[in-house]
Amino acid sequence: MEKQKPSILNPSMLSLLAEMVLDEAIYKYRTESLYKRIDEALENKDEANFNRLTTELKQIQASRPDL
């Protein structure tokens, strides 16, 4: 009997791949949004908002595993 090769098309692999793609899209959206809002805080000389947003960005970056 011949062993079957693992297929990327099996449901569990597709689910994992979809989750990875979604996680990456969410991460990119959140970081890009934070960078934009940080730039706006700098332009407006809003130190409190700048500090809050940079702290949030650092937390998001720290929670992401190195790739």
Helix proportion range: over 70%
Task: Report, as a whole number of angstroms, the end-to-end distance.
Answer: 39 Å
Indicate the overall shape: rod-shaped
Main sheet: strands, sense, barrel: none
The number of helical runs is: 2
Structural class per helix/strand content?
mainly alpha
Return the string of H and E elements. Answer: HH
Radius of gyration: 19 Å
Stretches where pLDDT falls below 50 for ≥5 residues?
Answer: none
Mean pLDDT: 90
Determine the strand fraction and express it as a percent band: under 5%
How many strands? 0
Description of the structure:
- The protein is mostly helical and 67 residues long.
- The protein has a domain at 23-62.
- The chain is built from two helices and no strands.
- The chain has helices spanning 11-43, 47-63.
- Helix 1 (11-43) packs antiparallel against helix 2.
- The longest helix is centred in the middle third of the chain and has 33 residues, at 11-43.
- The relative contact order is 0.09.
